[in-house]
């Protein structure tokens, strides 16, 4: 009976002054990782998504070295955000695995106008411990 491999993280989370920042591949227009890939495993599709063909990746890590954002992870193969092609038919939070799995709902899926509405809302102040002010802890 074969066990399923655990998923490879495709996002990086940085903590800065008590705030967590979720970072993923920027799918750069010029994509230096694609140019540096010696096997052609990294490619840009018609939508501008930079994707990795794991069958072609030999683990040379040239893509890791040239990513200006440091967002390609050297695991067994190059791991980076692939825009969840296996979830294309899904909508809302279920469209992307990272958005669906985010325990704090910090990740958001929407159109430009949706982001503008979200940004227009007031930001709730946080305590130094990162909790919302006025939030009570359950004991």
TrEMBL record:
Signal peptide feature range: none
Database matches in SUPFAM superfamilies: 4Fe-4S ferredoxins
Domain of life from the UniProt record: Bacteria
Keywords recorded for this protein, A-Z: 4Fe-4S, Electron transport, Iron, Iron-sulfur, Metal-binding, Repeat, Transport
Short name of any one Pfam family annotated for the protein: Fer4_11
Family matches, as PANTHER family: ANAEROBIC DIMETHYL SULFOXIDE REDUCTASE CHAIN B-RELATED (PTHR43177:SF5), PROTEIN NRFC (PTHR43177)
Protein name: 4Fe-4S ferredoxin-type domain-containing protein
């Amino acid at each position: 009976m074969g066990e399923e491999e655990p998923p490879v993280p495709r996002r990086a989370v940085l903590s800065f002054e008590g705030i967590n920042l979720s970072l993923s591949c920027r799918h750069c227009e010029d994509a230096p990782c694609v140019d540096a890939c010696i096997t052609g495993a990294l490619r840009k599709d018609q939508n501008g998504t930079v994707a990795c063909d794991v069958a072609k990746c030999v683990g040379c890590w040239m893509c890791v070295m040239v990513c200006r954002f440091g967002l390609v992870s050297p695991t067994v193969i190059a791991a980076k955000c692939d825009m969840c092609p296996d979830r294309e038919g899904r909508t809302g939070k279920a469209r992307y695995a990272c958005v669906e799995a985010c325990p704090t709902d910090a990740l958001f899926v929407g159109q430009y106008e949706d982001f503008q509405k979200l940004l227009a809302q007031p930001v709730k102040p946080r305590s130094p411990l990162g909790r919302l002010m006025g939030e009570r802890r359950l004991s």
